[in-house]
Design goal:
152 residues, 7-stranded antiparallel β-sheet, lipopolysaccharide transport protein A fold, mainly beta
């Protein structure tokens, strides 16, 4: 008999490889039944060398489609500095996580922000390896930093 999904998620939290959010998701879902929702999904990711939390991945529910594809509803990804201070946050109503590629994407709205910017739009893609986000439609960016003499 297989362990409950909640127990597998708890185990996955303990076994998460450092710095690989989407690879961590694959480990967390390795033995789950496809298309079975997991409510209140939460997966913190820690740096193996320091033990500091570097990412926090959450969703109101996660649906494991395959080892390659996981769907998160009410997707929230937070990144932290070495001192575990919030560095950035990304939110979307729905995200598809392509585990081997370490990519998250969605066709719905997105909000990404940190202390220096606030970005919103639709139809987006986040690539962990390149550490960047591409927003294709209805893009709005507010920069919260001084441009100094740039406009002179």
């Amino acid at each position: 008999m297989f362990p409950s999904p909640a127990r597998l998620v708890r185990r996955a939290r303990c076994l998460v490889p450092a710095a690989l959010v989407l690879a961590a998701v694959a480990g967390g879902f390795a033995q789950l039944v496809p298309n079975a929702p997991i409510p209140d999904f939460h997966l913190p990711v820690f740096d193996a060398a320091t033990g500091n939390k570097i990412y926090d991945l959450r969703g109101a529910s996660a649906i494991y489609h395959s080892p390659q594809l996981v769907e998160l509803n009410d997707f929230v990804l937070r990144g932290f500095t070495a001192g575990e201070t919030l560095r950035f946050e990304v939110q979307s109503p729905k995200a598809m996580l392509h585990v081997p590629e370490r990519v998250a994407e969605g066709d719905q709205s997105i909000r990404a922000h940190d202390a220096s910017y606030d970005l919103t739009g639709r139809d987006w893609r986040w690539e962990e390896r390149e550490n960047h986000i591409v927003v294709r439609q209805d893009v709005r960016v507010t920069i919260n930093a001084s441009l100094g003499s740039f406009l002179k």
